[in-house]
Amino acid sequence: MTVGSLLAADLVIAVLAAAGWLGGGAASAARRRPLALGLAAFALLATLARAVTITALARAGWWFAAEKVLVAAPLSLAAVAVAGPRLLRAPGDIRSVAVPLLFAGYAVSGGLLVTVLHGYPASPGLGLLAVAGVLAATAVSWRALGRRPSPTVSRVALAAAVAALVTGTGLAATPDAAPAVPHDHEYRDARTVGEPTRRFTLTAGTATVSVSGRDVGAWAFNGQVPGPELTATVGDVLEVTLRNRDIGRGVTLHWHGYDVPNSQDGVPGVTQAAVLPGQEFVYRFRADQVGTYWYHTHAVSDVGVRMGLYGVLVVRPAPPTGVDVTVPAHTLANLPLPAPRAEPVQAGTPVRLRLINTDSTTHRYALAGTPFQVAAIDGSDLRGPTPLVDTAVLIPAGGRYDLVFTAPATPVALFVDGRTVWSTGGVSAATGGWPVLDPLGYGVGSPVPWSRYDKEFTLVLDRGLDLHGLRPRYAHTVNGAADPDIPPQVVRLGDVVKFTIVNRSSVVHPWHLHGHHVLVLSRNKEPATGSPLWLDSFDVRPGDVWEVGFRADNPGVWANHCHNLAHADAGMTLHLMYS
Ligand code: C2O
Ligand code: CU
Q: Ligand 1 pocket, 563 CB below 6 A?
């Protein structure tokens, strides 16, 4: 069983246990004896079963189980201790066990709420708050059933509530608030100067574009979605002038995966101000990294990118020989892009397909009709890629894969999620059942270049209640906090840094660090054995634990966030900054 399914199973069992106790309590209050006994017996079993799931989760990693062990398990034990013996005594008046059964229901629900509303890390304050809530609910039910609650219950509830307030629950107060990210620092360096050799102008504006025969409203660069393809040869100096015609919420250009100097990174409020209608901003950087990249607005990025403010950036080592095609996959107004493209290719021609996922969720790509190699991922060439046949690849949000092959005499077709996007002729292939490539074992390995780390950070990804902003929200959180309250990660120039990224939520988080590529060290305790993978976007699936490392060699303040941009917007963004 994967950790992701264990997390799901534990949640389901907890819900069933809570429902069983509460239902049993209600049934006994209504003097429905068989129903009450049946539900209570079921709830008892479910509560005990959680011992198995919680233990398994704790063994997979303390992050997955902390609050369950520290809060839910003691509450569940109390539930069993209070309700169990009273049930076994087979009460003559079933109504006499209503309060104990309801108490058990509140106790199990309390543990469940701590998991769902806060998760990791568990805090004593939160545990106390749960105890207070459970006892208060019990006292209220007791009274509602026409009896006088034991005064001890109310007293302990009050004491726990006061203690929780004193200790702090982490829900509404910020114990160590994140230092503000500086707004107007400049890290100009030699990489931003030099006479431009490639000049582009991108004008952002609202537009109507045609997608598979339908006119849809979009936000576009130069009236097209995707925006113009920016290409350069290594050694060029790129100069890109961004203008905003009428995007009221502002635009910027972020060079996704391209490790530009910080001043050119295009993050509003961090490296520049958003470019408002009528304004412009000039980006300049050296084309010193060969590979497949993309650009997109980083102002209200969830909406902006989805609406179409993105395009391709390709830096080639030399002018292309053979066929060199970019395939950015996107969903615009629920319609898939790009439109299918058929292109005859002479047998024997080298072909490179640059696959780019510009959506917020994973896409599945399949190349049918030829053996191929994955030559590069996220702009970095792989070491010793071997030929693959009838194998699919999963590309995370923001990620890029370069597939290469020599054109055969027979047709070849590329599918995205089962839809043909590029082909050299008709191919009928059922690619849905193909195995998926695991890049961590692909190509030829080489030793990790460091043996120790100067800084180590753990990022536990989850959901939780965030009461800090103006409106309470169910945020996507890192270590129990949401943007802008997540403390920044502070490093020094030259540090070797390790991130451990843990996903204890039920959704995929495509992780993306700006300004650096990270080397994958391990996933779920299994070391990466294939070609070194220097990634800027990788899917951390539910229950996954990834370890990645990098050298802090690009000073500045860098966004570090989930590239499901709706998640990033809902709190899952923090910053890496150099001291
Ligand atoms: Cu492609 Cu911060 O984003
Ligand atoms: Cu996410």
A: yes
CA distance 44 to 80: 7
pLDDT one-digit tens code per residue, 181-221:
554 444 456 666 678 889 999 999 999 999 989 999 999 99
484: cis peptide before it, omega within 30°?
Answer: yes
> Environment class of residue 160 by beta-carbon count within 10 Å: exposed (0-12), middle (13-18) or buried (19+)?
buried
Give 514 Cα–ligand 1 centroid separation in angstroms. Answer: 7
Is the beta carbon of 567 within 6 A of some atom in ligand 1?
A: no
Q: What is the C-alpha to C-alpha distance for residues 187 and 358, in angstroms, rounded to an integer?
A: 28
Instruction: Say which DSSP state 113 is in.
Output: H
Q: Is 512 in the pocket of ligand 1 (CB under 6 A)?
A: yes
Pair of tokens at residue 178: 């994140």
Which residue's entry shows tokens 């929780």? 164
Distance of CA 246 to the CA centre of its chain: 31
For residue 504, report the distance from its CA to the centre of ligand 2, in Å.
11
- Distance from the CA of 283 to the center of ligand 2, in angstroms? 28
Two tokens at 379? 């702009």
pLDDT tens-digit series, residues 89-122: 877 888 999 999 999 999 999 999 999 999 899 8
Q: Which residue has the tokens 């993309």?
A: 294
Q: For the beta carbon of residue 475, count every other beta carbon within 10 angstroms.
A: 24
Tokens of 62: 């303390």
SS3 142: helix
The pTM for the full model equals 0.94
> Positive or negative CA dihedral for 554, 558, 562, 566?
negative
234-277: pLDDT as tens digits? 999 999 999 999 999 999 999 999 999 999 999 999 999 999 99
What is the β-pairing status of strands 363-368 and 413-416?
Answer: antiparallel
